[in-house]
Each structure stands twice: as structure tokens, then as C-alpha cells.
Amino acid sequence: MRSPNDRVINVPKIVLTDFYTKTCGFCREQALILEELAEVFATHVEFRMVDAEMDSKLAEKYVVFTISTLIIERDGELVERFNGFVPADKLERALREALR
Fold first, then answer.
1. How much of the chain exceeds pLDDT 90, in percent?
2. Which CATH number characterizes residue 94's domain?
3. Which pLDDT value is given to residue 100?
4. Residue 75 covered by a domain
5. What letter does residue 55 receive in the DSSP assignment?
């Protein structure tokens, strides 16, 4: 018997993590795109923003050498990794593919 707290089976958990820094100019542009995509994918994708300078341990764990780095994971497994600025259409395609 399932309880209300049980996770729904066969629903992938998609997470997009943006590693940025406050001094990165195009990171602000990337953040605007991510805000728009967060609205589109609100019920399907979790968006995380990580300041790579403030959370260097997490940046190290994900081997982040380039800012901005975007990482898309499905159920904890790497699906796609982008370094540098990524246009909205390319990110949207990657997220739709991750949801398949």
C-alpha cells in the first residue's frame, strides 16, 4: 500500500545546476534564460544556482573549471554538460531530451 509520502514511480527527476560567479558578466544573461526556462519546466525540472566561489567543494565535486557550467542530471546521472553561455533553444532541447 502506498502512502501520500511515497514518490511516484517512473517519474524521472531532472535537475539543472548552474555554476556561476557574481563577477561573471554573461552569467547574468544566462540566469535570465534559466528563469524563463524554469517557468516553462516548473513541474518537471529543478533549477539550482550555485556560486562556484562560495561553494567550491560542490564545484570541485562536479569538476567545474569553466564559468558558467551548466549540468543536467536525470535521477542523479549526468545527461548533459555545457561550458560557457548556452542559448535558450539549445538548453530547451536538452531539457526536453532529458525528460524522455
1. 72
2. 3.40.30.10
3. 87
4. yes
5. T
What are 66's three cell numbers?
569553466
Low-confidence ranges of the chain (pLDDT < 50): 1-9
| Assessment of whether the complete model's pTM goes beyond 0.70 | yes
| pLDDT at site 37 | 95
Q: Looking at the domain assignment, is residue 7 inside a domain?
A: no
What is the DSSP secondary structure assignment for residue 23, as one 8-state letter? Answer: T
The DSSP bridge pattern shows strands 77-83 and 14-20 to be: unpaired
- The C-alpha cell at 1 is 500500500
Query: Beta 69-74 vs 45-51: how paired, if at all?
Result: unpaired
Residue 20, beta-bridge partner list = 51
Distance CA 99, CA 93 (A): 10
Q: What is the reported pLDDT for 8?
A: 47
- How far is CA 81 from each of CA 42, 65, 78, 90, 94, rounded to the nearest angstrom? 20, 12, 8, 12, 10
Q: What is d(CA 70, CA 59) in angstroms, rounded to the nearest whole number?
A: 11
| Secondary structure (3-state) at 62 | coil
